[in-house]
Amino acid sequence: MQLFRQIPVFACLVLVANMAMGQSLDQVKPLRVKISNITTLQGQVMLAVYDKQEDFLTEKVVTSAMAPVKANEVFMQLDSLALQRPYVISIYHDVNGNGKLDTNFMSIPTEPYGFSNNNLGLMAIPNYQKSSFLFDEQLDSLEIILR
Fold first, then answer.
1. With 50 as the cut, is the pLDDT of residue 23 above it?
2. pLDDT per residue over 106-125, tens digit each?
3. What is the 3-state secondary structure (H, E, C) of the chain?
4. Res. 85 pLDDT band, cuts 50 70 90
5. CA 8 from centre of chain
6. How far is residue 144 CA from its own chain's centroid?
7. Does this model's pTM top 0.70?
8. How far, in Å, CA of 31 to CA of 127, rounded?
9. Nearest to 111 by CA among 122, 126, 97
């Protein structure tokens, strides 16, 4: 009987220790991302996931991925996104393989790019809120069309 009284205390200690070390008990699941409208079969597709507006289009990403371009569509899987959170996915096709999104003298991208919800700003950076989606149990995949 003494053992059963110690189990809740031990469970609480484990929970507090995990929280102190920054570990989350969030449920996670994979998300499959289809990138379409690829017109040049060279280079790689670069993907970044954001969960905070202040981090949008910075190097402060939740996760990132890269895949070589071998067809007009590329499929990428993000294995451990936490459920019930809003995210924005940013993608660009690094055609020349230099590891960055090339732009012209007006800072307009010269390589194809896209965002979740296929939201593209007109002559401006896309709106974070319009690009945001809630990752929940029903969402298994999404498609981003490069422009």
1. no
2. 888 999 999 999 998 766 77
3. CHHHHHHHHHHHHHHHHHHHCCCCCCCEEEEEEEEECCCCCCCEEEEEEECCHHHCCCCCCCEEEEEECCCCCEEEEEEEEECCEEEEEEEEEECCCCCCCCECCCCCECCCEEEHHHCCCCCCCCCHHHHCEEECCCCCEEEEECC
4. very high
5. 37
6. 12
7. yes
8. 22
9. 97
